[in-house]
Amino acid sequence: MIGIKSIASYVPADGIDNYAQGAKFAKDEEFIIGKIGSAFLPRKDAAQETSDLCVEAVNALFANNPDLKRESIDALIVVTQNGDEEGLPHTAAIVQDKLGLPTHVAAFDISLGCSGYVYGIYAMKGFMEATGLKNGLLVTADPYSKIVDPEDRNTTMLFGDAATATWMGEDAPWQLGKSKFGTDGSGAPHLKVSDGVFFMNGRQVFNFALLKVPAHLHELLNESDLKADEIDAFCIHQGSAAIVDAVARRFEDAPVDKFIKDMVETGNTVSSSIPLLLEKHMLDSTWKRVAISGFGVGLSWGSAILHRP
User: Where in this chain does the record put each Beta-ketoacyl-[acyl-carrier-protein] synthase III C-terminal domain (predicted)?
Assistant: First the structure.
């Protein structure tokens, strides 16, 4: 069974002081931490491309796992909607070349935003098991600094740049359990790019998250014959502190602190937010069962149960 063997990440050291940025929009520190959730927003260097962030994350994964050799990689999936340059060729091909991976690697992109990691791990699992592949790399990198307008108060205080790399293969310490997915394209206008600039209808996105995510997770738990108190942690997309808190309050049978909130130094990193949580909080934990949920652009959402075998 293909599962999650290891996760590594790359978060740029440089970035934006969100308190200073908030002051420009007359937002105090209480708002920045209480509602936004992020005091610092990492930013890639102007010379860095999306593929460069991917390479940094994968190299960190190789460094953490000396037994994982480049020549053993069979599959590479990059989850991004902000690929290199104009988006053609696919970023995964560029990453394959920059990493010096063998040319027998199957490499392709998945164009999804904040739900992308949940979709990505199941796409990788299904692809690898269907084709008999042994070692896959799922990489997330969606640097919104490419598209966010620094004068747009609805977006510029939210997003940080980051990349993650997940090694998927056999004999993994974390297995993929039941999952559920959904799409509502009628909500596409609420999160979109026009003329190279990102637009977000914050109120509509918040309402979508609050109405859809708790119900979706409850359905997943019911279909898995699980109760919320049987989940060790909920690692949901870190859209904002307000969103995570609001979703947590919809679970009366689970303590609020089971909903991991950790975005103070990263911001909303889109498809990287869930694997950043898993890397930091799950991999070395004593947890046995974790619920994940990603939601955003599309509108798209996906939830799943991860468990130890």
Answer: 221-306
For the chain, domains (ranges, CATH) are 2-172 (3.40.47.10), 175-307 (3.40.47.10)
pTM for the complete prediction? 0.96
> Any bridge partners for residue 180, and if so which?
303
80-102: average pLDDT: 95
Alpha-carbon gap, residue 22 to 36, rounded angstroms: 10
Query: How far apart are the C-alpha atoms of 159 and 261, rounded to whole Å?
Result: 15
Contacts of 40 (CB under 8 A, 6+ apart): 15, 16, 17, 18, 160, 264, 265, 266, 267
Beta strands 3-10 and 163-169 are antiparallel
Please say if the pLDDT value at position 28 is more than 90. yes
* Alpha-carbon gap, residue 252 to 109, rounded angstroms: 38
At 224, the amino acid letter reads S
